[in-house]
Design brief:
348 residues, 5-stranded antiparallel β-sheet, 13 helices, 5 strands, globular
């Protein structure tokens, strides 16, 4: 699992520019590659700390992925990064307590991940990385059924081959599933990112090379192809992200209000329930930590709404428009998060 995520960090770093170049949905802001890379980097960093793995995770595959997923969720960037973090956290759950990956476990993990990813978005859309993840999960389940629960390494290899092939086919289909992609003649950037992540998993588990030929022929993915959003109108508005502890009721209220206020609303649980410290107070509703993401015209009402329901941490606001030309000089004066090579982010 460490080898997988480390490989994914390198690959997404190498491909971030091309992923940014074809990023057109949900907004043409050219940051999908950067967001995925930074989110995966957070997961890798969490597994490279000074705490010996044996004390926390041992040989527990689920525990390793859970730790990586929690860190990714806390530092997730954008739609794509948030959905990747959801994917990691959900996939870790059925692997809890397991010392190795198998075809049946892979099928269960991918299915859990695709269900959680679809449900995290208030308005999920086909033709995105959601569709790619769903296709991968369906392929793993088909192989698992055909192999009658075989948990051998051979069956796992067959499953991983099928997963990557299905993900590739799903990426190709994205161009015709979304009108914006079809008009621009490109495939979905987040979908390609998920394909790369899954191919890294196959490579790490099977000890084989990455299948670089997978990217041949994908529309918009040649090095000489332009950044498709360069001549498009700038997207108004901002992206607001934070982490906050809320009861299920307040989380539902926040999601509903954010849906009314903006779009691209993603809310996903971070970790387990946080019950009252005093066991003699069973009437107190447990709270959960949530990672919140939304695109809004103006950040102030969204931030005020969030703060009216709880005490958020790590509130960050990023402009959706990509600075260009002279605008970059002005943007450079904005407050940036240290170590972030992406666009300016304001902290409240």
């Amino acid at each position: 699992m460490k080898r997988w995520l480390g490989k994914a960090e390198v690959v997404l770093g190498n491909h971030s520019d091309r992923l940014n170049a074809i990023n057109i949905f949900p907004v043409a802001d050219g940051d999908t590659g950067t967001n995925l890379y930074l989110t995966v980097r957070a997961a890798v960093t969490a597994l490279g700390g000074t705490t010996p793995d044996s004390t926390e995770t041992g040989n527990d595959v689920g525990a390793v992925l859970s730790r990586a997923g929690q860190a990714a969720m806390e530092q997730a960037r954008g739609n794509s990064g948030t959905l990747f973090a959801v994917f990691l956290c959900a996939a870790a759950e059925p692997l809890n307590g397991k010392s190795r990956l198998s075809a049946p476990l892979l099928a269960t993990a991918l299915n859990r991940a695709q269900i959680r990813a679809w449900s995290a978005l208030s308005e999920p859309v086909a033709g995105t990385m959601l569709s790619v993840l769903e296709a991968a999960a369906n392929a793993a389940q088909a192989v698992e059924a055909a192999q009658n629960g075989d948990d051998s390494n051979h069956a796992l290899g067959l499953s991983l081959d099928a997963v990557v092939d299905a993900a590739y086919q799903a990426v190709v289909r994205t161009e015709d599933e979304l009108a914006q992609l079809h008009e621009a003649r490109v495939v979905d950037a987040g979908g390609v990112g998920m394909l790369l992540v899954l191919d890294c998993l196959r490579s790490a588990v099977l000890g084989e090379e990455l299948q670089d030929e997978l990217l041949d022929g994908l529309h918009g993915y040649k090095l000489q192809d332009p950044h498709i959003h360069e001549h498009m109108p700038a997207d108004d508005g901002v992206e607001v992200m934070c982490t906050i502890s809320l009861s299920p009721l307040n989380a539902a209220i926040l999601r509903q209000r954010l849906d009314e206020m903006g779009d691209s609303v993603i809310m996903s649980q971070v970790g387990g329930a946080q019950g009252p410290e005093d066991d003699d107070e069973p009437a107190v509703e447990p709270s959960y930590r949530w990672r919140v993401h939304v695109h809004v015209p103006d950040p102030e009402p969204a931030v005020a709404l969030i703060r009216s329901l709880g005490e958020p941490t790590d509130i960050a606001v990023s402009q959706l428009a990509v600075p260009s030309g002279a605008a970059q000089d002005t943007a450079a004066q904005d407050k940036e998060v240290p170590g972030d090579p992406g666009q300016p982010r304001h902290e409240f």
